[in-house]
Structures are given as C-alpha cells and as structure tokens.
Amino acid sequence: MRWVNPEKISIIEPAIRGVEPDLHLIARLKVEGVPEFESWVAKARDRSEVDSLWREFLVRLFDGSAD
User: Fold this and answer.
1) How far are the Cα atoms of 15, 17, 18, 26, 63 from residue 47, in angstroms, in the given order?
2) Residue 18 near residue 35, CB atoms below 8 Å
3) What do you get for the CA distance between the two ends of the chain, in Å?
4) Is 10 left (phi over 0), alpha (psi -120 to 50) or beta?
5) Is 25 exposed, middle or buried (0-12, 13-18, 19+ CB in 10 A)?
6) pTM, rounded to two decimals
7) Mean pLDDT for the chain?
8) What are phi and psi of 66, to 5 degrees?
9) Which residues of 29-60 are buried (b: 16+ CB within 10 A; e: fewer)?
10) Residue 16: is its pLDDT beyond 90?
C-alpha cells in the first residue's frame, strides 16, 4: 500500500458513487506537487455507513495508523 504524508495534503473531500445498497466512498485529494486525484476508500450499504467509513478513514490518515 502506498501512503501519503498527511502534511502534504491541501484538499481532501469525500465523494459518493453508486446507489444504495452499492455505494462507493471516494476520496478527492490534492497533494502538494501532484495534480488533484480520486482514490477509492470503501464500499458501503447506505449513507450513514459512508459517514462512519469517512470518519474512520480520516482518523487513520491523520493519526498515522496505516496498515
């Protein structure tokens, strides 16, 4: 797995693709020195699960606990 130094992220926002119960959580990222890009984060059944997965993703990203 590749990991981005969170200190280099200037923009990060969630995007959702698909329809319930087949939602895909995407992170839109702008990292210093790299054009803006999207990265798949997780699959979810509904919007509340998307919200939970997004919060978990941010915690993992910014506390440095990448697997």
Assistant:
1) 11, 11, 11, 13, 24
2) no
3) 8
4) alpha
5) buried
6) 0.82
7) 90
8) -70, 145
9) bebeeeeeeeeebbebeeeebbeebbeebeee
10) yes
